């Protein structure tokens, strides 16, 4: 029983401290957030109770403007990659880029083959030919 006299205020202080840290600066009332942190930590029972009663701007859940709906509006939901249109578009763009790169490489290879064929047809007497002429 004596332990409850210590555990309950300690739990209340820890809860109020964490709640204060997780509350945005705009939602604190009457004092700056850092002041509320010091009040909660310095004044054993009165500080946490004051925070819970007067420190935080509470929203009415009946009007639909409660913290849960506010957080739901700000938070992005996770979407599986195969359902995410941005991810699918990036895959498509990557595939098109690789395809275009492969086509450019094949055109370059075809051009080199065509030049070699021309050299063979002309008897190798092109300006880039390094072999000495035969007589």
Write down the secondary-structure element order.
HHHHH
Q: Find the structural class using helix and strand composition.
A: mainly alpha
Sequence stretches where pLDDT stays below 50 over 5 or more residues? none
Give the total of beta strands: 0
Helix content: 55-70%
Rg over CA atoms, rounded to whole Å, is 37 Å
State mean pLDDT (0 to 100 scale). Answer: 81
Write a structural description.
The protein is mostly helical and 135 residues long. It has helices at 2-22, 33-42, 46-55, 67-74, 85-121. α1 (2-22) runs parallel beside α3 (46-55). The protein starts with a helix and ends in a 14-residue tail after the last helix.
Give the SSE layout:
Elements (H helix, E strand, L loop, with lengths): L1 H21 L10 H10 L3 H10 L11 H8 L10 H37 L14
Helix pairs in contact: 1-2, 1-3, 2-3
Keywords:
135 residues, mainly alpha
Nutshell version of this structure?
This protein has 135 residues and is mainly α. Helix content is 64%, strand content 0%.
